[in-house]
Amino acid sequence: MEIIIVKNYNEMSKKAASIMESVIREKEDCVLGLPTGSTPIGVYEELVRMHKEEGLSFEKVRTVNLDEYVGLEESNDQSYRYFMNNNLFDKVNIDKKNTNVPNGMKEDIHAECERYEEVINKMDGIDIQLLGIGNNGHIGFNEPDEELNVNTSLVVLKEDTIEANSRFFKNRSEVPKEAISMGIGTIMRAKRILLVANGKNKAKALHALISGKITTNNPASILQLHSNVTLVIDEEAASLF
Ligand code: F6R
């Protein structure tokens, strides 16, 4: 595992974006696995800047997002499809047909999970999966539990995740209780994983990620088994290393 510790959020965003850029420049039709949340916003801003100022093209790039809430329309500004359009897709020359986010409005969520896993399988691998990490060690919405899902599945969010995500909603009761998330196996099949994190809140989860032990109580700890993982984290997030 490669660990890059940077000073602050700005440096984290620039470093991670430059790694994503090198993948896109090397393979114009690469597959990017993408997260939402507050951490990757700076990475997306930097990629948009590279597109506008340095000719980075997304024309043939394909994307798959990690997760989506159940029950939010695409037009809801808290849906992850809305987030991706707003922070990246509408600001670069990507073909929206090449972007994939699970559809949390489908009546049959299990069928949607299967369809989504199939979409990813047909892509011949995610070239780089960008990840954030939850305060509780979740990746995607794979929450700490006795068992973890291998493939894309319907997940019930833990109380601490609902609490953490309530900052984006008017009140806590509006936070959806369920989501569709890539499974741990879906994530681990990515050819390369790039995890970004900043701030003290993430220090404990990151410590578990480099502990040398794997536990379903910290889903991210399984990344220790992947052969190509880079962490780009700021000093606060690395404070327990
Ligand atoms: C989002 C996702 C989550 C977030 C995590 C951290 O698509 O899959 O695992 O990466 O909850 O969120 P932030 O970046 O808001 O701290």
Describe this structure in words.
There is one protein chain. By secondary structure, this protein is of the alpha/beta class. Helix content is 30%, strand content 17%. The protein contains seven helices and ten strands. It has a seven-stranded parallel β-sheet, sandwiched between helices. A three-stranded antiparallel β-sheet has the order 4-8-7, covered by helices on one side. The longest helix has 18 residues, at 9-26. It is globular and about 45 Å long. The relative contact order is 0.18. The site of fructose -6-phosphate (F6R) has 14 residues, from loops.
Q: Classify the secondary structure makeup into a structural class.
A: alpha/beta
Instruction: Trace the largest sheet across and list its strands.
Output: 1-10-9-6-2-3-5
What is the makeup of the main sheet?
Answer: 7 strands, parallel
The percent range for helix content is: 25-40%
**Alpha carbon gap, first and last residue:** 14 Å
Order of helices and strands: EHEHEEHEHEEHEHEHE
Identify the overall geometry: globular
Q: Let me know the number of strands.
A: 10
Mean pLDDT reading: 97
Indicate the radius of gyration in whole angstroms: 17 Å
